[in-house]
Write a structure and sequence with these properties.
It is a single chain. This protein has 271 residues and is α+β, with helices and mostly antiparallel strands. The chain has helices at 27-34, 39-47, 157-165, 184-192, 229-236, and strands at 25-26, 51-53, 56-57, 64-65, 70-72, 85-90, 138-140, 148-154, 171-179, 195-196, 199-200, 204-211, 215-223, 241-249, 252-253, 262-264. The chain has five helices and 16 strands.
Length: 271
């Protein structure tokens, strides 16, 4: 039996477009060829803030360059990238311990104030501000959201351990503004020590800092403080808190740092 066989036309496979090689490359590769050095060493140069592209410092090794002008600082160093500790003057209303991912209408992490633009111009540390300094920071020593003052953020495990393990030994200095006039009797009660259900509260040294027509400012020096403790002590002696500012943690003082700005912990400073 014979039949007609339908012959389908042959369909040619689609032509593959010729491969166009990329003309750009990773910045780390360019730097490695310029030095010359290994790719990892090139990444260290870049992350250390030693490399500029078209006159602007670039800290990302993955950055793509082609005809860009790449320069390496003449004093570039491959010394180990140092961990840093940042000191922030937290304004009232910011949560000292909240992570950036917790930001919401109700929570404003103080860490979001750590930016290049808020770095104090009078920082005497001599440390160059790098993007990597804002990563992997841990907040230390809690401070009430309504209070202002010194808050510590660190990448250094040694600083973190010191502030956590010696929290009960480190003295904090806090200026507390209370409504009205603070009586000598109230000061004496606080300095003699108070009890809570028969248990002594942390010892505190309180002195009159200044007085005005409507309020008085008291200087608290206290060890083992935790959020709410100073407010509780003031309540026990009938003081109504108007404002609170932490000036010092251990031997590190905030000094003249304006609210909302930060500086680096200097090499000679120790908590």
């Amino acid at each position: 039996m014979t039949g007609t066989v339908n012959m389908l036309p042959m369909i040619a496979p689609p032509k593959t477009a010729p491969h166009t090689p990329r003309i750009d490359e990773r910045l780390a590769k360019r730097v490695a060829a310029m030095v010359p050095c290994s790719r990892r060493e090139a990444e260290q140069y870049i992350e250390g803030g030693w490399v500029s592209v078209n006159g602007k410092v670039v800290e990302e090794p993955m950055f793509r360059v082609s005809s860009h002008k790449v320069d390496i600082a003449p004093d570039a160093s491959l010394m180990e990238l140092q961990t840093v500790t940042l000191l922030l003057h937290k304004p009232p209303g910011y949560d000292a311990m909240a992570a950036l991912g917790e930001a919401s209408r109700q929570v404003r992490p103080a860490q979001q104030l750590l930016q290049v633009a808020t770095h104090n111009a009078d920082d005497a540390s001599g440390t160059r501000v790098l993007k990597r300094h804002f990563a992997k920071l841990t907040a230390c020593v809690p401070l009430e959201t309504a209070a202002s003052g010194l808050v510590v953020f660190t990448q250094d495990w040694r600083v973190l351990r010191k502030l956590e393990e010696d929290a009960h030994l480190l003295e904090q200095e806090v200026i507390v503004e209370v409504a009205g006039e603070a009586t000598a009797a109230s000061l004496q009660r606080l300095n003699q020590g108070l009890l809570d259900d028969g248990h002594p509260l942390p010892a505190v040294k309180v002195s009159l800092n200044s007085t005005g027509e409507t309020s008085s400012k008291m200087r608290f020096a206290i060890k083992g403080a935790h959020p709410g403790l100073i407010a509780y002590l003031c309540e026990r002696v009938g003081w109504q808190i108007v404002g609170m500012k932490r000036l010092r943690i251990g031997r590190v003082a905030m000094a003249q740092l304006p609210a909302g700005q930060w500086r680096y912990l200097q090499a000679h400073e120790r908590f």
